[in-house]
């Protein structure tokens, strides 16, 4: 029988790639969606007609229990979150509720529906396997470089703090109840489906607008921050591998290469034959209250235990995103509309 997966956050970037990946592997895929009229749901339906939907919200414990009871998944991927770091200062409590407490609610739904009532009573053979979308933002002000599974955390935003709670809770449910629960500590990963507010997509859309004469400048914040950027399609493969492993363990997923935002900007403008210095305007209002200056993964464990490797380089990724956005805008597409996903 086909394995059954339930994905929270299925309308987001990673949810769409993970759903595609699992469908191709023969899974029955269910997505948890909230709200009545979410244009992201119709965008997903257009892209992936085979996905089944169940209503629910990470803020609502009962809805998660009902969703797990109805779907009876073999695997749950918890990707739902408020994931834009600047928003986490503006709506810190909501971020704690969705990105942090949402993990507790999902784990509780699985525990209750699996009938695990006391410590370490779970039977590993018939368990619902749980993946938590943790983040390199937990490393924050980094204690060492590159960062691996043993690097201590020092989160720098309410988002990073909420993710750290979710990470430790996932470990705690594994240790307390013997659940197959894993935390994937993923570094930044991008694609033509990335939300327009994140810097890579903001830059690729900005370059496309300038190239097509639709804009003259691009306003950006801190150009010196360094990130380890990879391709989202590669990272969802790692999620599945973690749940298919013989034992539940946490993994760092990244490329092991780091670039400044300035290097990203240079690469993106040059992919379109443009000189970035003529168009980029530094805007101090886009700087963050506390910045994460440097992220760089040490993905050795994922390579040796899971056989995972990234397949798309930074340069290829940036060029693909720029090309995709030039095509999108040339065809009259609107990046904010449901029709825009390649
Ligand atoms: P994304 O595009 O921002 O998607 C976030 C998803 O969360 C959306 O589907 C959204 O659904 C859903 N969501 C928001 N509030 C919810 C709620 N109250 N209940 C249920 N679902 C809710 O994020 P992404 O880039 O795909 O990232 C996926 C996950 O990985 C997130 O947890 C993110 O924090 C984490 N992560 C991402 C990266 C990265 O570089 N992309 C790196 C490390 C970790 P709606 O359509 O209903 O808003
Ligand atoms: O693209 P960003 O907004 O991503 P950030 O903050 O690194 O977070 C992303 O990756 C995390 C994994 O490490 C995820 F957990 C999280 O959910 C999200 O997907 O910003 C990247 C860098 C920052 O240093 C920021 O200060 O780009 C810098 N930046 C400079 N100008 C800008 C801008 N970021 C944005 N969004 N917009 C700017 O104009």
TrEMBL record:
Transmembrane segments: none annotated. Catalyzes the conversion of GDP-D-mannose to GDP-4-dehydro-6-deoxy-D-mannose. One of its GO terms (biological process) is 'de novo' GDP-L-fucose biosynthetic process. SUPFAM superfamilies: NAD(P)-binding Rossmann-fold domains. InterPro entries: GDP_Man_deHydtase (IPR006368), NAD(P)-bd_dom (IPR016040), NAD(P)-bd_dom_sf (IPR036291). Its cofactor is NADP(+). Residues 6-321 form the NAD(P)-binding domain. CDD domains: GDP_MD_SDR_e. It comes from the Bacteria. Its EC number is 4.2.1.47. It catalyses: GDP-alpha-D-mannose = GDP-4-dehydro-alpha-D-rhamnose + H2O. It is an enzyme of class 4 (lyase). This is GDP-mannose 4,6-dehydratase. The gene is gmd. One of its GO terms (molecular function) is NADP+ binding. Pfam families: GDP_Man_Dehyd. The active site is at residue 164. Keywords: Lyase, NADP. Belongs to the NAD(P)-dependent epimerase/dehydratase family. GDP-mannose 4,6-dehydratase subfamily.
């Amino acid at each position: 029988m086909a394995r059954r997966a339930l994905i929270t956050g299925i309308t987001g970037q990673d949810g769409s790639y993970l759903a595609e990946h699992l469908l191709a592997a023969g899974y029955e895929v269910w997505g948890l969606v909230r709200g009545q009229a979410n244009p992201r749901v119709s965008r997903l339906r257009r892209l992936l007609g085979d996905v089944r939907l169940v209503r629910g919200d990470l803020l609502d414990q009962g809805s998660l229990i009902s969703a797990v009871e109805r779907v009876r998944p073999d695997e749950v991927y918890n990707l739902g979150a408020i994931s834009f770091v600047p928003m986490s200062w503006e709506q810190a409590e909501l971020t704690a509720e969705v990105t942090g407490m949402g993990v507790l609610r999902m784990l509780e739904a699985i525990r209750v529906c699996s009938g695990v009532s006391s410590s370490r009573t779970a039977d590993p053979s018939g368990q619902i396997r749980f993946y938590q979308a943790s983040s390199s933002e937990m490393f924050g002000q980094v204690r060492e470089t590159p960062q691996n599974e043993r690097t201590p955390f020092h989160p720098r935003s309410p988002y990073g703090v909420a993710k750290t709670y979710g990470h430790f809770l996932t470990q705690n449910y594994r240790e307390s109840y013997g659940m197959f629960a894993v935390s994937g500590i993923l570094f930044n990963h991008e694609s033509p489906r990335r939300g327009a507010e994140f810097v890579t997509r903001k830059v690729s859309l900005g370059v496309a607008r300038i190239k097509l004469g639709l804009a003259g400048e691009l306003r950006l914040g801190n150009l010196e921050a360094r990130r380890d950027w990879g391709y989202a399609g590669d990272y969802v493969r790692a999620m599945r591998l973690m749940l298919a492993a013989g034992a539940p363990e946490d993994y760092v997923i990244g490329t092991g290469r780091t670039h400044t935002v300035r290097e990203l900007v240079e690469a993106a403008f040059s992919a379109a034959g443009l000189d970035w210095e003529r168009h980029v305007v530094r805007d101090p209002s886009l700087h963050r209250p506390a910045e994460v200056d440097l992220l760089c993964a040490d993905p050795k464990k994922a390579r040796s235990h899971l056989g995972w490797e990234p397949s798309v380089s930074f340069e290829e990724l940036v060029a693909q995103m720029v090309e995709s956005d030039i095509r999108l805008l040339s065809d009259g597409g609107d990046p904010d509309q449901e029709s825009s996903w390649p």
